[in-house]
Write a structure and sequence with these properties.
The complex is a heterodimer of chains A (469) and B (331). Chain A is mostly helical and 469 residues long. Chain A is built from 13 helices and 6 strands. Chain A has helices at 5-44, 47-81, 83-117, 124-153, 170-174, 179-208, 212-247, 249-255, 289-295, 316-345, 353-361, 365-379, 402-433; strands at residues 158-161, 164-167, 267-274, 279-286, 384-386, 390-391. In chain A, strands 1-2 form a two-stranded antiparallel ribbon. In chain A, strands 3-4 form a two-stranded antiparallel ribbon. A two-stranded antiparallel sheet of chain A has the order 5-6. The longest helix of chain A is centred in the N-terminal third of the chain and has 40 residues, at 5-44. Chain A is globular, with a radius of gyration of 24 Å. Chain B is 78% helix and 3% strand. Chain B has helices at residues 4-32, 38-46, 52-69, 71-80, 82-104, 109-136, 155-179, 182-213, 215-222, 226-230, 232-250, 254-274, 285-288, 292-319; strands at residues 140-141, 144-145, 277-279, 283-284. The chains are: A mainly alpha (469), B mainly alpha (331). At the A-B interface, helix 2, helix 3 and helix 13 of A face helix 2, helix 3, helix 4, helix 5 and strand 2 of B.
Chain lengths: 469, 331
């Protein structure tokens, strides 16, 4: 069996971006949370906010550092493995990526140093401003990256000359049909992901009993946030689905494993899609519900895959299941929030040990949902890189050989499988340690002596002898 | 409207900022492997901890800038240097993570110390190989690279790889003269002189070697009257080397700026050799340029944003000015 550079390049891109997306999924939300805590600290002067903020800033630093180095990899992938895609689309999408570097990446990196290390070196308003600017940077970043991604899904504002895309209308390029929905759904999803991660940590601290005060404060804050954002996310997802129905019907048909276009379409809860035989096995479905959900009317026609040539269909089973995982987790999140309120109204939220444990184990739920959603939208875009216009097979670098890409893929696998477990373990250790005791903040200028010194070998914080070799 | 010259300038500036800024922190990464004690390593790392990711931003700015302004060059050069780019990215991942992990993962501190030093060295070497391969040029058909994955590895590109390691060590040592005190500074002075000797020799060798691999470059430098106009470049380089040699022993701030001047002159030398080609022998800056609408759309924003970035980057350096201390590092 020969090694196919196209397949291996796709695998490599999926590998590096899947790991990378987990970090923005966390840091976009966390940057805003830290900025909020810094704001509360700045305006109320309550030390608890400073303690919580410092606690999360430590974790943020690890995630952000990993986000930077795994993010640097991404633009180079376009050049090394997808040079024909780059040549064909550069005139249209390259400014969007460059604007991401200029408005977001630089902003985050420029002020991160001050946020992490400068609390005692700059005046307090400047430190708060740095927190706000880092948070703004993460949002700008999402804006440009998702604009680029959306243009590949629903291209607009271009003209095609000799197989290459040229810009005609920049506003149409940026605000292409799927962009507003994708932006809101994704960024809100990132906030929800962070919300559940923070809630899981908070539940752990409350359950453990040490640093419980901070835990309760975090839990209350995130529950309030998620009460709004989880239902909002389901609403935004529905809007995004309607948009996909309009602009990418073949993708929607694949997501639903729907072979024949029909009205009064059922909703398949479970099925084993058979791409060759163009049918489903072991189907469990609810009549009428498909049309109702997807078109908001039982008379609405749901597109079928047979309307589209076989060569233009996405891998049905992958997107069928990834979509159901995402939606299932969304409903589970809604149930968790509802349950939390039920307990809270009875005054038992902080004392129900089983529920705190449940919340702890639900901490990573958003990450799984983000990956599932990303698989749905990106695999659903296949077999195209620019939907309906440029095939993935025509996008890959022509000079690549199979063994060459295999080596690079193995390199990325090896390095990521070292870095990510260590990074996650570092974050877990920071959580185990809990929010430390912080000395009173210096209002500005330079401290007289070492304040948060990392002397070699010694343990800081409230917990002696932990982790000492 | 023709803004190709403007983009040439912006990109040249971006790459230069990257080389100088990430150059000194990669250099410190390499010297880190030679440090004598853990305290010293901590100080060295703290001297760049707040600014390294800002420095690395310029790599992404350079990459996306090339993609945006001269996409044809981006689509040809990157596949041609597939493995050096891979090695650079993987090495940068390791050394970038080492900043946080070294401090937190005490049980494996030795591993992360090595990751930081070797990662910095490998990333630098890979960048030097890319530079050498770029000067040599690539086989191209139509709008695509058609050579093999290892064409970029040659005696010349390996030499430029080593040369860049010397150069970055020089920048790093000069940064430590600026930020360090006592024994740390004293050793940095010796290291700066050693790195300077190696760098000056490497620059001389590359300068003499390049005309041999490319007749156009030889004509450009050695034909009359060019030789008269261009002679100041090597002469100024020699002068800067002498000034830096003296300053490295006694001054604090000057060595770093002389080192930057040395890089500026070397950079200028390469630019003189290759201009106006962005894919040497094949495509000029004009051939490889993106559509005018693309360049203008991005150019407008860049002219506004680039100065802003430079200002707040400068502010961040200002905040962490002065000698490095243990308390300006990890929390």
């Amino acid at each position: 069996m020969g090694l196919d550079p196209l397949f291996l390049s796709r695998l490599q891109f999926a590998w590096v971006i899947a790991w990378h997306i987990l970090l923005p999924a966390f840091t976009v939300g966390l940057a805003s949370y830290v900025a909020l805590l810094e704001g509360l600290n700045f305006f109320t002067d309550k030390p608890i906010y400073l303690r919580i903020s410092t606690f999360w800033t430590r974790i943020f630093a690890i995630a952000f550092g990993m986000g930077v180095v795994s993010g640097v990899v991404m633009p180079f992938q376009f050049g090394t493995n997808w040079s024909r895609f780059s040549d064909a689309t550069a005139n249209v999408i390259s400014p969007l990526l460059a604007y991401e570097s200029l408005t977001a990446f630089s902003l985050e990196a420029g002020f991160l140093g001050v946020l992490l290390f400068g609390r005692h070196l700059v005046p307090r308003p400047a430190h708060f401003a740095a927190a706000l600017l880092v948070a703004a940077g993460t949002l700008f970043s999402s804006f440009w990256i998702l604009a680029t991604n959306s243009w590949m899904q629903t291209p607009a504002g271009y003209k095609l000359v000799d197989g290459r895309f040229f810009p005609v209308d920049w506003l149409a390029v940026i605000f292409n049909p799927s962009f507003p929905y994708r932006l809101l759904h994704t960024v809100n999803g990132f906030f929800v992901t962070t919300g559940f991660a923070v809630m899981g940590v908070a539940a752990y601290l409350v359950h453990r009993g040490r640093h419980a005060e901070e835990g309760r404060a975090m839990l209350t804050m995130t529950l309030g946030l998620l009460t709004v954002l989880v239902p909002l996310q389901i609403f935004l997802g529905d809007l995004h689905g309607l948009n996909t129905l309009e602009y990418q019907p073949a993708k929607l048909a694949a997501i639903e494993a729907h072979w024949n276009a029909e009205s009064h379409a059922p909703l398949a809860l479970f099925a084993l899609p058979d791409q060759d035989k163009e049918t489903n096995h072991a189907v469990l479905e609810v009549p009428e519900l498909g049309s109702l959900i997807l078109t908001h009317s039982v008379d609405g026609v749901v597109p079928g895959l047979k309307q589209f040539p076989k060569a233009d269909r996405a891998p049905v089973a992958v997107v069928f299941f990834s979509f159901r995982i995402m939606v299932g987790l969304g409903l589970l999140m809604l149930a968790l929030v509802a349950l939390a309120w039920l307990l809270r109204l009875r005054g038992r939220l902080f004392t129900s040990q089983w529920f705190l444990k449940l919340l702890f184990f639900a901490g990573p739920i958003g990450f799984v949902a983000v990956i599932a959603g990303w698989v749905t939208t990106e695999v659903g875009r296949q077999p195209w890189t620019v939907y309906g216009l440029l095939r993935t097979a025509q996008s890959v670098t022509p000079s690549l050989t199979g063994p060459q890409v295999l080596v690079s893929l193995l390199g990325y696998m090896l390095v990521y499988l070292v870095i990510y477990p260590v990074g996650v373990w570092m974050m877990c250790k920071a959580v185990l340690k809990g929010p430390g005791d912080i000395q009173s903040p210096v209002a500005g200028g330079r401290p007289a002596g070492p304040v948060v010194a990392p002397p070699q070998g010694s343990n800081q914080g409230s917990k002696p002898a932990e982790g000492a070799p | 409207m023709n803004i190709v010259p403007l983009w040439t300038l912006i990109l040249a500036l971006g790459v230069f900022f990257y080389v100088v800024l990430d150059g000194f922190d990669l250099g410190i990464g390499m010297l880190y492997g030679l440090a004598k004690s853990r305290d010293e390593r901590t100080l060295m790392m703290n001297s760049i901890a707040p600014i390294w990711d800002g420095n690395e931003t310029w790599l992404v700015l350079g990459g996306t800038g090339l993609f945006a302004a001269f996409p044809l060059a981006f689509a040809i050069i990157l596949p041609a240097v597939y493995f050096p780019v891979l090695v650079m990215l993987l090495a940068l991942i390791f050394r970038g993570c080492a900043f946080e992990f070294r401090f937190r993962d005490r049980e494996h501190r030795g591993f992360w110390d090595h990751a930081f030093a070797y990662g910095s060295g490998l990333a630098t070497f890979a960048q030097g190989v890319v530079l050498g391969a770029f000067i040599q040029g690539f086989p191209v058909r139509g709008r695509q690279f058609v050579g093999g994955a290892f064409d970029c590895i040659s005696l010349f590109s390996i030499f430029t790889g080593i040369a860049l390691m010397c150069g970055y060590c020089l920048l790093g040592a000069c940064w430590l003269i600026l930020k360090g005190e006592g024994a740390l500074q004293a050793r940095a002075r010796r290291q700066a002189r050693a790195a300077l000797a190696a760098t000056a020799a490497a620059v001389a060798v590359v300068s003499l070697w390049t005309p041999f691999i490319d007749a156009d470059i030889a004509r450009r430098w050695f034909s009359w009257p060019n030789i008269a106009f261009l002679a100041p470049v090597p002469l100024a380089t020699a002068a800067v080397v002498l000034l830096l040699w003296r300053a490295a022993a006694r001054n604090t701030v000057r060595p770093f700026f002389y080192a930057v001047a040395l890089f500026t002159l070397s950079y200028l030398g390469i630019a003189i050799s290759l201009f106006p080609m962005i894919v040497p022998h094949r495509f000029s800056l004009y051939d490889a340029a993106s559509s005018p609408q693309t360049q203008i759309f991005l150019g407008l924003g860049t002219l506004f944003l680039l100065p802003v970035i430079i200002v707040y980057t400068g502010w961040s350096y200002w905040v962490f000015r002065g000698k490095v201390r243990a308390d300006t590092g990890y929390h």
